[in-house]
């Protein structure tokens, strides 16, 4: 969640108040618009789309590691509470940035005084984003819990199968169709995931079930962004704001009735400096990650977002193996990982050349 995410190619990255443009500001506007040029000749991906994809991968790698540290290394009892903290942090950042008129919540980029109210967006628009907010809440809760029960290398391996769920949901919700090269690269990713996890799939059935549930909720969430996000009139900041103010109270109530807040208060490392640093960095990274997800999905596609998740796995697996361990060396696992990376690379190549 950082710079702005507009589905229109003519919007500036961080829209500010609309006023007459002098020559200098006009040149700056033209410079920003040029950021929507193609990554290179013949490419179907814009430069801004490429930057969004890279930003997402960097944030995702770091966030997985910090979440894993909080839930496993410190044995924090509730993933829901971490999700709640992340939402509160995100809404606080957005409120401050919007209040100071640094960002806008709409595609037009205007910051008129009339729309600076309690919610910053009209109630009708807020209700239109309700399905997106609910799928976001489900995605956040299940994904956070899925990190706990599986080691980092196998977690990233199983998460690659999200691409299949995403293709199915995009076809159902948006009628999206893909070419044979895309199908081939996706098939290679899935084959690699099953080969890598073949010797380990009999262990911790519940952990694997939660990961596959996370794959399903992720696919629904990304497809919903692709469909609702582009027609709501809101940019990525606006969509994130709606998610936060809709889901925050629901999650607060849920953690209260489940007793998660009580467990948090009794957590022995709650005021430990190391844990607080991990939690703070997790919240900051969640803000930027959620923004980059919106930006990547609206500028590119839900499937591109999923493939980016596969490409960043190389770094996640390497760092996770070094920091957390949990998966001994195995020949088939390495072969499966390599197939997955090759498939992800082929998809990226076909996307860039426009096939």
**Whole-number radius of gyration?**
20 Å
- Runs with pLDDT <50, length 5+? 1-22, 24-35, 112-116
- Please estimate the helix content: 55-70%
* Largest sheet descriptor: none
Shape label: globular
**Overall SS class:** mainly alpha
How would you describe this protein?
With 355 residues, the protein is mainly α. Helices cover 69% and strands 0% of the residues. The protein has 15 helices and no strands. It has helices at residues 23-33, 47-73, 79-99, 123-128, 130-146, 152-159, 162-174, 180-197, 205-229, 236-258, 260-265, 273-299, 302-311, 313-323, 331-353. The longest helix is centred in the first third of the chain and has 27 residues, at 47-73. The protein is globular, with a radius of gyration of 20 Å. The two termini are 29 Å apart. The model is unreliable at 1-22, 24-35 and 112-116 (pLDDT under 50). Residues 56-347 form the Sugar phosphate transporter domain. Residues 1-25 are annotated as: Disordered.
Brief overview:
The chain is mainly α and about 350 residues long. It has helices at about 25-35, 45-75, 80-100, 125-130, 130-145, 150-160, 160-175, 180-195, 205-230, 235-260, 260-265, 275-300, 300-310, 315-325, 330-355.
List the helices and strands and how they pair.
Elements: H1 23-33, H2 47-73, H3 79-99, H4 123-128, H5 130-146, H6 152-159, H7 162-174, H8 180-197, H9 205-229, H10 236-258, H11 260-265, H12 273-299, H13 302-311, H14 313-323, H15 331-353
Pfam families: TPT
Keywords: Membrane, Transmembrane, Transmembrane helix
Region (Disordered): 1-25
